[in-house]
From TrEMBL:
Spans traversing the lipid bilayer: 363-385, 397-417, 448-466, 473-495, 501-524, 589-610
Organism (species): Urochloa decumbens
Record flagged with keyword Nucleus: no
Main location: membrane
Localisation per UniProt entry: Membrane
Listed name of the protein: ABC transporter domain-containing protein
Length: 627
């Protein structure tokens, strides 16, 4: 028996499904000469533009499954685009080729390391091309290069052609399933897939059809039994890792892409689940004429038998590649329609509200702690009265309440980091942009933070015996809400820049500590050093406007007994000017308006941080590598 042309670490091909190798194929190491076919693909494309697509070599004429494959039906969710007249038009078939593809990365001190070295190959419609090789051989880098996802710290040379043209992949024509499973843990499987269907599909598709399409995808991926179960993760227990992997694949195939990239689709799955998933994908590729490129590590022989083409890599170089077949017609790729911006905002807001409601760490735990803290505040400062000593008690209570309750917003930082990870994945896949994410995050957090501010705030306010009048309490609660919204915006900015739990909490705490220190309570405004601490820190500290607004709300209209007991009284305006050094040139409503403006400014800074973050982070990484 002749020796296998594959390296010994590659799986043995199925005996009933051998690799398709041309009659003139050589050994794996010497197969570089066979690349004259791939290197001349661009010259072959023009004559094929006027031909119709040839039938798949391995597909029987009657369209039935061949006996060598696992008998599994295609995803009805994608196949429905042929049947439903409301759905989007089918994507044109994609023939993907790459010639002399080289990728390098900075290795420090001005030198660059070669990750991929002059690779050439092609992927055909209706087939699954497997990228295989040992760990570190460059499978994921090749996948990222073909998908246009290389980081700015890497440089690519060579040609990547889509149907013979150099063009970018538009939304809906391709999908990328990452190796890391990033899903919202508090949602059920059904909710996650339904939300994704509403985000990806245009508004011309009826809501009932979107639900049906999502339900078919769930059934065909074998997830019907866990459709009502939460995905789970850090927040709560949920479905298994293999089931989460299938949900990720299911979500990305809803838009009926013509080109699919899969990074370790069988990672974390047992042999049965791997065969089930890859069988669905292979059948889908055959039935829908989809081009599938998958980076796979150590597949079973049954899974290996499902691949149409094989690309073996070692140390960034091509070891073996199956022969390329004739090229097929390529029409220009057109961007598919998506849901409208308002629909995306509504869906994301609803999903975020569900996540906040179910995330005990983000809402319920904080709510319970807030109530406990406000009960403590109310009992310690219980009924302070109108004596001279109550002046300091009222000022201390207002300062402590406004700073500690807003400082507690740091507790939601882990949830912010998880949201940012999910956003990054869905943004790269073109589901929605940063603007929709920021708007939905702001709208969804508003009612929850309002409840956190009103109920615990009422406990502390009325137990302490602060100034009576419902309008005074409304202002008190409004300031707490504005401060909490503002701090959440600040922590979201930190989460976008520092995606590490510990470093992010330390950074956010340090920033709030500095702003609190310069608010004019621990050190009166006239005593603050003018460089830096008063100009500009004192005026950009939100604590300054919060405490001065609360002071005006509380002290104006009150009178206090003189300490000497001589029957003299001090009015609130005198105390504000003399003892607390509050700026009296404008009313408390101006302080509240400034806080609300800062809420908007922080959210806009959050949006700007997201948009420029992708460009800044790789530059910082390159600088750190060089140092």
């Amino acid at each position: 028996m002749a020796a296998s042309p594959l390296p010994r670490w590659a799986p043995t091909p199925s005996p009933t499904r051998p690799l398709r190798v041309s009659s003139t194929s050589q050994t794996a190491i010497s197969s570089c000469s066979s690349w004259t076919v791939c290197s001349s693909l661009s010259s072959i494309f023009v004559p094929f533009f006027r031909r119709s697509a040839p039938p798949l070599v391995d597909a029987p004429a009657n369209g039935a499954d061949d006996g060598d494959r696992v008998g599994c039906h295609p995803l009805d969710c994608v196949g429905a685009r042929k049947r439903g007249h409301h759905l989007q038009e089918a994507s044109p078939m994609v023939f993907l080729t790459w010639e002399d593809l080289t990728v390098t990365a900075s290795s420090g001190r001005g030198s660059r390391a070669v990750i991929l070295d002059r690779l050439s190959g092609c992927a055909r419609p209706g087939e699954v091309l497997a990228l295989m090789g040992p760990s570190g051989c460059g499978k994921t880098t090749l996948l990222d290069a073909l998908a246009g996802r290389l980081g700015t710290d890497k440089k690519r040379t060579g040609d990547i052609l889509i149907n013979g043209r150099r063009e970018k992949l538009a939304f809906g024509t391709s999908a990328y399933v990452t190796q890391e499973t990033l899903l919202m843990a508090t949602l059920t499987v059904s909710e996650a897939v339904h939300c994704s269907a509403q985000l990806q599909l245009p508004d011309t598709v009826p809501a009932a059809e979107k639900r049906a399409r999502a339900d078919r995808a769930i059934r065909q991926m074998g997830l019907a039994a866990v459709a009502g179960s939460r995905i789970g993760g850090r927040v709560c227990k949920g479905i298994s890792g293999g089931q989460r992997r299938r949900v990720s694949i299911c979500v990305e195939l809803l838009a009926s892409p013509a080109l699919v990239f899969l990074d370790e689709p069988t990672g974390g799955l047992d042999s049965a689940a791997s065969l089930h998933v890859m069988g669905r994908i292979a059948s889908l590729a055959r039935e829908e004429r989809m081009t599938v490129v998958a980076a796979v590590h150590q597949p079973s022989s049954e899974v290996f038998g499902l691949f149409h083409g094989l690309c073996l890599l070692a140390y960034g170089k091509m070891v073996y590649f199956g022969p390329a077949a004739d090229a097929v017609e390529g029409a220009p790729l057109a961007k598919k329609r998506q849901a409208t911006f308002f629909t995306k905002c509504a869906v994301l807001t609803r999903r975020s509200c569900t996540n906040m409601h179910r995330d005990a760490g983000y809402y319920w735990l904080r709510f319970g702690i807030y109530i406990g803290i406000c009960l403590s505040i109310g009992t310690i400062f219980f009924n302070v009265g109108n004596s001279f000593a109550s002046i300091q008690a009222r000022a201390s209570m207002l300062m402590f309440t406004s700073t500690l309750l807003t400082m507690m917003s740091i507790g939601g930082f882990p949830s912010f980091v998880e949201d940012m990870k999910i956003f990054r994945k869905e943004q790269l896949n073109g589901h929605y942009d940063a603007t929709a994410f920021v708007i939905s995050n702001t709208l969804s957090s508003t009612p929850y933070l309002g409840i956190i501010s009103i109920i615990p705030g009422a406990i502390a306010y009325y137990l302490t015996g602060l100034q009576r009048g419902f309008d005074h309490f409304v202002y008190f609660a409004a300031v707490l809400w504005a401060c909490t919204m503002l701090v959440e915006g600040l922590m979201m900015i930190v989460a976008a820049i520092v995606p590490d739990f510990l470093l992010g909490i330390i950074t956010g705490s340090g920033m709030q500590g500095l702003l609190m220190l310069n608010a004019g309570f621990f050190r009166l405004p006239s005593d603050l050093p003018k460089p830096i601490w008063k100009y500009p820190t004192y005026y950009i500290s939100y604590h300054k406007y919060a405490t001065q607004g609360l002071y005006k709300n509380e002290f104006l209209g009150l009178t206090f007994e003189d300490l000497g007991g001589r029957g003299l009284t001090l009015n609130g305006e005198y105390i504000l000017k003399t003892y607390l050094q509050v700026e009296m040139g404008y009313s408390k409503w101006v302080d509240l308006a400034i806080l609300l403006a800062m809420v908007l400014i922080y959210r806009m800074l959050f949006l700007v941080t997201i948009k420029v973050g992708d460009a800044v982070k790789p530059m910082i990484k390159c600088i750190s590598v060089k140092v």
